[in-house]
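Two records follow; treat each independently.
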Amino acid sequence: MALRRILHYPDPLLSQESAPVEYIDEQITSLVADMVDTMYAAPGVGLAAPQVGVLKRVIIIDCGSKDEPELIRAVNPQIVERDGECSEEEGCLSVPGYYASVKRSSWVKVRYQDMQGHWVERECEGLLAIAFQHEIDHLDGKLFVDRLSSLKKSMFRKKYKRILEQQKEQL
């Protein structure tokens, strides 16, 4: 397994739609293993393949604890039902140092293939529902900041520019 470089906003690859995975082969298995290592090293609770430069519909999520991880490896994930509304603060490994409140569905039913190619349906709420929506957005070429109002996006761009300048100064 290897750590992969996480792409950061405004990398144009992050705004492209990902292609479905036709076969879960050695290449996809290796990608997932690398994504797991990369996500835990970052650290994060989710990672989508486009964030490491691969435009395939693959995500991983772990909303468990350090003592009890609950790793989900999802290929070709999709939201088949949604309900309710919540607004929680989100961050993203591709937008380091920036957090904002985002409106999402509070409950979702997702469908995805596991690493053996079997289809799984799962009902999710709370952080897991938010994480699935966030990571599936990546597969559709969207970042959480794309869901902000025009005013908040404008504020984000200004603040993020300062964050990037501060990070360069620290290097």
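The next record belongs to a different protein.
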Amino acid sequence: GVNGDSADNSEHGSGAVYLFHRSSSAWRQAAYIKASDTADSDLFGSAVGLSGTTLVVGAPRQGRIDPDWGGNVILGSGAAYVRKIAP
């Protein structure tokens, strides 16, 4: 989620993204973002893309539940998270 608890390190290696905004000559943190479904070693934030107000964040080791495989988690299948951000 956005602006959650940045001190929560309960999922080692899950990752996070920090957004900063520059106003005049100072930088300030505008947002702290973690995946809504964090898990150990997801590496959320390993890749980040920004185009206009669209943010895309990669988590290359995110596992997903695949119903076609009997509901098993496919480890390391990866995920991309897309979010609109305020200018």
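Discussion point: The mean pLDDT is 81. How would you locate this feature using only the token line?
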